[in-house]
Amino acid sequence: MPLHPNILLNSSQPTSMPKILSLLAALCTLPAAAQPKLHAVPVQLAGKKAFSLQVPLGYELAVAAQGLERPRFFAKSPDGRLFVTDMHNREDNTAGRVLILSDWDETTHRFRTVVPFLTHLHNPNQIAFHTQGGKTTLYVAETDRLRVFDYLPGSLRPADAGRVIARFPAHGLNYKYGGWHLTRSLAIHHNKLYVSIGSSCNACLEKESLRACIVEMNLDGSGQRVYATGLRNAVGLQWVDQQLWATNMGRDGIGPDQPQDVLTTVRENGYYGWPYLYQYRQRMMPDKSFADSIKSQAPPVEKPGLVGFAAHSAPLGVAYFRSFADTLLDRHLLVALHGSNMVSRHRGNEVVMVRGRDRYVPILTGFLQGNTEAQRYGRPCDVLQWTDHAFLVSDDKSGVIYYVWKK
């Protein structure tokens, strides 16, 4: 199906964009012989049935931490410690935490200590550290606000009570208004903050300006402006050199295969389709539910994103590996596919490596081993390169942090 006749495809790009895309596309393309072969590694979580996960040959996997509630996104502090957000459960709550995982045991490949750094948070999804002029600050993104704290190396508590520097729409999943998308994702680049704010609905015309968008602001919260729009739920944000990447989830209710979920580059003032259009097989397709609204309201849309994942895969965290000891993963993008809420669809539930346009292969898989929720042993949320030979994956279903390393 071609584009709607009243939809314009925005071909304007920064001058560096073609070079960036061609470079990343080349780096993300492996010859057929390099297709990773996987092997099974047994996993035994406390008090649960044993199962196996699959990783590439030459890699091993260990449970680095377990017994957490809903671990989401990682952040490595300037003093080399691992922080992770913990959202408590899938409902709206103020029981979220930021945890420190420490006392690494190289023999067992486990963190021996888990310490709450912040508690009583409103669905904390992501945090970010920033150091300037010898001072480090910690940014914490919650559903309704963005706070900044002073950070002291080695500390087990924030150095101050924190300052609210931005407010966001607060009705999300399970709110009385019937909306959803309560997570706020966060990235810092060139002394600017970037926060993604999901839509209030599955498919609608928003009444609030800070919805289905990415906002940009100064480090103190001033100068807030909408950076990009039409992103229904961009949960993963990652700057790679001078380019912002985002994962984005398509709407429900059209069918089992459309729209695709997306990994895309994001540019200033770009519009990415929602709610009028969606991506499918490298085309931007009109949403028939909004056929009468397209002519007057839809701005020029950006080109399709680099990867269209299978519909309802739910891509979340994205990481770009640098100086990794194995060329299989070095200079490649890895994406955590959280998986569909409908287990029978068998979509997502794995960590994949991007190989090129609409091409990706599993790197950590085996979380879903049947057609029922009881047979889903985890849901990957975030990926973090930890060393030059190891990476971490968070699982917010079973409350686990996995450690995967090249032998």
Q: What does this protein structure show overall?
A:
With 407 residues, the chain is mainly β. It has two domains: 9-65 and 101-113 and 176-183 and 195-406, 6 Propeller (Neuraminidase), CATH 2.120.10; 66-100 and 114-175. It is 4% helix and 44% strand. The chain is built from two helices and 31 strands. The strands form nine sheets. Strands 13-14-15-16-20 form a five-stranded mixed sheet, with no helix packed on it. The N and C termini lie far apart (48 Å). The model is unreliable at 1-7 and 11-16 (pLDDT under 50).
Could you give the topology of this structure?
Elements: E1 9-10, H1 17-27, E2 38-43, E3 51-56, E4 59-65, E5 71-76, E6 82-86, E7 96-105, E8 110-121, E9 126-132, E10 135-141, E11 145-151, E12 163-167, E13 184-189, E14 192-197, E15 213-218, E16 225-229, E17 236-240, E18 243-248, E19 261-266, E20 270-271, E21 277-280, E22 283-286, H2 291-297, E23 301-302, E24 307-309, E25 315-320, E26 333-337, E27 350-356, E28 359-364, E29 380-385, E30 390-395, E31 400-406
Parallel strand pairs: 1-23, 16-20
Antiparallel strand pairs: 2-3, 4-31, 5-6, 6-7, 7-8, 9-10, 10-11, 11-12, 13-14, 14-15, 15-16, 17-18, 18-19, 19-24, 21-22, 25-26, 26-27, 27-28, 29-30, 30-31
